[in-house]
Amino acid sequence: MTTLSGKVAVVTGAARGMGEAEARLFVERGARVVMTDVLEEEGRAAAEKLGGAARFVRHDVSSAEDWARVVETAVAEFGGVDVLVNNAGLLRHALLMEETAENLDRILKVNLFGAFHGIQAVVPAMKARGGGSIINISSLAGLQGIPRHAAYGASKWAVRGLTKTAALELGEDGIRVNSVHPGAVDTAMLGRTVERGRGGFPAVPLRRVGEPEDIGELVVFLASDASSWMTGTEFVIDGGSMSGIVPPMRAE
Amino acid sequence: MAELQGPNLAGKVVIITGAAGGLGAAAARQVVAGGGKVVITDVQEELGAKTAAELGDAARFHKHDVSDPAQWQAVVDFTVAEFGAVDGLVNNAGVTAGGPFDVESLENFERVIKINLTGVWIGMQAVIPFMKAHGGGSIVNISSAAGLMGLPYTGSYSAAKWAVRGMGKTAAIELAPFKVRVNSVHPGMIYTPMTAVVGIQPGEGNYPKTPMGRAGEAEEVGSAVAYLLSDASSYVTGAELAVDGGWTVGPTVQNVVEG
Predict the structure, then answer these.
(1) Which member of A95, A244, A247 has the closest CB to residue B149?
(2) How many beta-carbon contacts under 8 Å exist across A and B?
(3) Any CB–CB contact under 8 A between A231 and chain B?
(4) Structural domain boundaries enclosing B201
(5) What is the pTM for the complete model shown?
(6) Does the model's ipTM exceed the 0.95 cut?
(7) A247 in contact with B at a CB cutoff of 8 Å?
(8) Cα distance between residue B166 and residue B161, in whole Å
């Protein structure tokens, strides 16, 4: 099993969904985690469940000041930062012609500026440890166009590009930067109820919706030294839907 | 459909394979409309000769199996003899074939690769010496939307089309110093004799899963090819030009999977 023993991670948007699963798997594999979110109550409860290896910090990722506090907490409580997962994100569906500049701004603030501030905030601490791994959660909407995802898609394509520049600039410091592109995952962001398990989600080749733990396992791998020669890369995790045209489900 | 206004191809001599009908013939018409000269090649002798005759003195036909290097040399020699140059090559000849992975035969796989991939490679090799020696040229390889994404039941076809896309990029880098440009065109669902066989229909509204809602016309691919052949694209090389009504961009508004 991939070990994260001795590593300290910061996971944003960790109160629930993918962020919570990532933090939980990190702790299971031996890491200590600073879990951050704007959802204070849920975030605190999620961290408490993970015991002494987890801390919660209330954190608006669009605030550089908040980021400084998060890094200070990681250093003070756990001695440094080895891993950053820029997971916090916002989604609002709207047709392009009905989208507002205010909403675009709000989504970019969290999804893009959040990752940008996060990278700037953790890099000095990572350099002090001799390297690190930054995982930016993008989306399938960062690989293709998706109707009603103009603001979200713009932010996720931007994160993908930011990842590549960061990988180029930070490689020499031993800091790896990769993007993860999940498809439909069974979280609050999905915005609807989907039957879990085989056959419940015919839109993708594996015919099931993604579980937060599916993404969590990939993020564990990217956080670990098992992926030590991977940087600047896009990891698609979507049950196969980006492979192309999905054939209809076979009749029973 | 309104008549398409193509770019200026005056003085250009272009070889187009598989041009007896379909996309190749449409590209040939665009070349001639733009003032260029074209050698149409195909295994379909009668139709190829007829298509060339319709285009008048600016077109010739040469029978041609693209998987045979000797025939390629004959086509290049013929082109130089008739029109004095080779400025452009459109590797358009191709076969559709396929089936589920567990059904397709090795023979069929090898046949598809031989025509759709090896034929393109031999073609590039055949024209490159002339182009290098005469100040450059433009090679347009017809790949497919199946060279941009997976398409079920097209294993051999999409393998060849992805390979053409990749090979074109290597060629673009190697040949750029010699002013030979190499680009790929990726048609989506286009109504041609080849695709009519697999059920593609023309007209509005037949393809709700494509953003534009319809299959494309051969002329709409021909105009993209003409652009890449012309000097209007003089700084374009190693590029992929999708001509697919938006098919490979993502799901349509009606078919989006929220997530």
Answers:
(1) A244
(2) 42
(3) no
(4) 13-258
(5) 0.88
(6) no
(7) yes
(8) 9
Assigned domain for B4 exists: no
Task: State how many domains chain B has.
Answer: 1
Q: Is residue B8 part of a domain?
A: no
| pLDDT of chain A, 252 residues: tens digit per residue | 789 999 999 999 999 999 999 999 999 999 999 999 999 999 999 999 999 999 999 999 999 999 999 999 999 999 999 999 999 999 999 999 999 999 999 999 999 999 999 999 999 999 999 999 999 999 999 999 999 999 999 999 999 999 999 999 999 999 999 999 999 999 999 888 889 988 999 999 999 999 999 999 999 999 999 999 999 999 999 999 999 989 999 876
Question: Taking CB atoms and an 8 Å limit, are B149 and A191 in contact across chains?
Answer: no
Which of A92, A95, A206, A245 has the most B C-beta neighbours within 10 Å, making it the best mutation to test the interface with B? A245
CATH of the domain at B103: 3.40.50.720
